[in-house]
Amino acid sequence: MIQLKNIERYYRSGLQKSWVLRDINLNIKQGEFLTIMGPSGSGKSTLLNIIGMLDQPNNGEYMFLDEPVHKFRESRLTELHKNYIGFVFQAYHLIDELTVYENIETPLLYRGIKSKERKSLVADVLDRFNIVAKKDLFPSQLSGGQQQLVGVARAVIGKPKLLLADEPTGNLHTSQGEIIMDLFKELHKDGMTIIQVTHNERNAQYGTRMIGLEDGFVRSDVAV
Question: How remote is the C-alpha of 153 from its chain's centroid?
Answer without folding.
Answer: 12
